[in-house]
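Reopening this one. Same input as before:
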Amino acid sequence: MLTLTGLTLALIIGLILQPWWVERRRARLRDAPFPVAWSHILRQRLPQLRRLPRALQRELNRQIMVFVAEKDFIGCGGFVIDDEVRVTIAAQACLLTVNQPRRDYFPALQSVLVYPGPFFVDRCIPDVDGIVAEQRVVMIGESWAQGRVVLSWPDVVAGAAIDEVGRNVVIHEFAHQLDQATGSANGAPLLPSRRRYATWSNVLGAAFTRLREDLALGRPNLIDAYAATNPAEFFAVVSEVFFELPDRLASAEPALYAELRHFYNLDPALW
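Same output, byte for byte:
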């Protein structure tokens, strides 16, 4: 029988070795052949991925293998989870991290909940007089800081198939996951240095202000009005536009595009 000291030592060794075990398991997953059936799913559901450079396509496949193995996919409202669901969601989520220097695979994320359609959530919403009342709101996606993303499957499919409208619910919610990695969703995800936060704040803050001014004056803006809700939603929405309409974003908001290009370490306008 292990003594208390022996148990403590075993726990310490386990904690020390855990990152090594995780990386070794991930290396095996990344090096395994990408299933042929999964390649067929990507071709059918996400034809735009063929525009990615070959090196990024290979890396995306490797990250999909790890993501599907590590995250729990849970069907809600009678929805049945299969490989088509897992791979379609994983591919879009991993697109955000495909060229990041660190492969964290959304470490806080534990599970992805999928509904057969839009779902309802209860929200406490203030009225014009400031009185807060609980209301039932229809949602197509939601990101929780407690390690969950909730998605509507038809909207996942629509966002995957059409990349010319600047809307993609998976990219949106997983951008929130990146944002929430700092502990709260405030539109400022983890950046490599304090100096980068100053630049990020200036560039995104200026674009956020321009959007609100355009909306107030009725002027057109490439970025959807929902982005004006708050800085967190602004980051999530402009991430959708960055991946879906990169040419137009680079033309309309060059500084914003450059900042997102730096953050994601990708330049989709070149694809």
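So the earlier flakiness isn't reproducible anymore. For the record, The beta strands are 72-75, 111-115, 119-126, 132-139, 141-144, 148-152.
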